[in-house]
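Re: the 139-residue chain
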Amino acid sequence: MKLNRLVRIWLLMSGIILLCGCVDPFGMAIDKQVVGKFYLTAPDTGEQTALSYQGSSGSSYSVIVCEKVIAIGYNDQYIIAEQERGKINYFIVPINNKNKVKGHWFGEIGPLTLNEFNAEKKALGLEKVKFTIFYKDLD
């Protein structure tokens, strides 16, 4: 009888712990809309900032450019992203499907070096697109 009660308490506590681990009651550290369904997100700290796409449920995200995204810029066709991962990488992400690169889920181009990034920007006519959202300003 006592063992049965202990098992019930243990199951209840395990369920509560599991639910608390799956749902963050305080929200994300960073959840800033860039354009459309594209967001800068970070679950716990700004060091985890990523460029993400918001799913149809509105509460889940797919990461396109993983941590640590330090700068974002965009126009009506593309998003440009600067990422720091031991070295600086650059990405170009199409906003709509018609500009997708074959073989990439979101059509992202990258990681690129600065020279590759500048050449790709020129080829896509993105010379005027500048970084306007910075990680340091989000904290």
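Confidence is low (pLDDT under 50) at residues 15-26.
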